[in-house]
């Protein structure tokens, strides 16, 4: 689950990570109020920041410096309600419903700090770079030597010397060095205890006064651990999520929309991946990933059909179910019932394999619904091929 910058900063603040003070607002009035309160606490410049689940907001016009409360008002009215396009939102952009007003920091230097899991090493990794404020992917590609890493042994945890080494690699000195070490230690603790999959600060800044502080914050939480973080789970903002993916989640389906022309519905993530490969081999492109899980019954299959058919690019649907615990004849009945309830406007290919596969195929063939049935994956691929009209 992704969090907004303001939510990530709230969490980090609780862990003692130095973040810029700020207030979130959903209207221009609230933004003005927030700026006045920050002014009363000593702020003279502000930054108005669009809160969307995507980075690159600055370049897209979603981060603006304001020299007065009046300028905060002006930027707030421009940014709230705008459709912000960044390299992470896709061409359709994302509607801005919330903004964060912060006390502007005087930036001397920008750095990058990120924590994530290194799957190859089976260890968390902390990465720092003196090239902050730019995309870390670009730094990794063009100047990999500018990224310093420390891997954390899960049985020992982050050791202070590792944090010191990273702060040193950033060229921090004196008071800033001490703050940098503390920052890295606190950030890592927050990452671990919140079950984050990523905690990224870009930029981490050195201020004109020699302080080290996070100006931006990105945290993603492992969905599988949300059950033990009620407070964080409550921060979910479904406006930022794909509505079809939200609907799929409500039916217990794992659905991810893709750009292709062949919809697919499969039980099991591994088989789903293999099915997507088969679609490609047949000359098509998968329109989605959809795992119906263990329960390939009439209700889940029907929900799956409705979700797949929302996508106008879909020219055919391939259902590929392995009957292990579920028997294929039962799945076939479910598919027929579901197809009766949904107006399926594209060719439907159903491949059932496993327990009672032949009985399942017979049921499909006998039904009055137009279903191309298959038992072998090769047959299914050929039927997909002719459905979408590629030679
Ligand atoms: P992003 O574009 O979505 O990554 O948003 P950021 O929060 O990283 O802001 C983008 C850029 O705006 C930063 O890299 C900074 O250069 C600048 N910026 C953000 N906050 C401040 C601030 O308080 N003071 C100054 N001087 N610049 C800021
Ligand atoms: Mn940033």
TrEMBL record:
Biological process (GO), any one: succinyl-CoA metabolic process
Binding residues annotated for ATP, in chain numbering: 49, 56-58, 105, 110
Main function: Succinyl-CoA synthetase functions in the citric acid cycle (TCA), coupling the hydrolysis of succinyl-CoA to the synthesis of either ATP or GTP and thus represents the only step of substrate-level phosphorylation in the TCA. The beta subunit provides nucleotide specificity of the enzyme and binds the substrate succinate, while the binding sites for coenzyme A and phosphate are found in the alpha subunit.
EC number, as in UniProt: 6.2.1.5
Pathway the protein contributes to: Carbohydrate metabolism; tricarboxylic acid cycle; succinate from succinyl-CoA (ligase route): step 1/1
Name of the encoding gene: sucC
Binding residue positions for Mg(2+): 202, 216
Classification via Pfam families: ATP-grasp_2 (PF08442), Ligase_CoA (PF00549)
Protein name: Succinate--CoA ligase [ADP-forming] subunit beta
Cofactor: record remark: Binds 1 Mg(2+) ion per subunit.
Similarity comment: Belongs to the succinate/malate CoA ligase beta subunit family.
The entry's keywords: ATP-binding, Ligase, Magnesium, Metal-binding, Nucleotide-binding, Tricarboxylic acid cycle
Subunit: Heterotetramer of two alpha and two beta subunits.
Residues at which substrate binds: 267, 324-326
Cofactor needs: Mg(2+)
Hydrolase found in the keyword field: no
Domain ATP-grasp residue range list: 9-230
InterPro entries membership: ATP-grasp, ATP-grasp_succ-CoA_synth-type, ATP_grasp_subdomain_1, Succ-CoA_synthase_bsu_CS, SUCC_ACL_C, Succ_CoA_ligase-like_bsu, Succinyl-CoA_synth-like
Domain of life: Bacteria
UniProt keyword Ion transport, yes or no: no
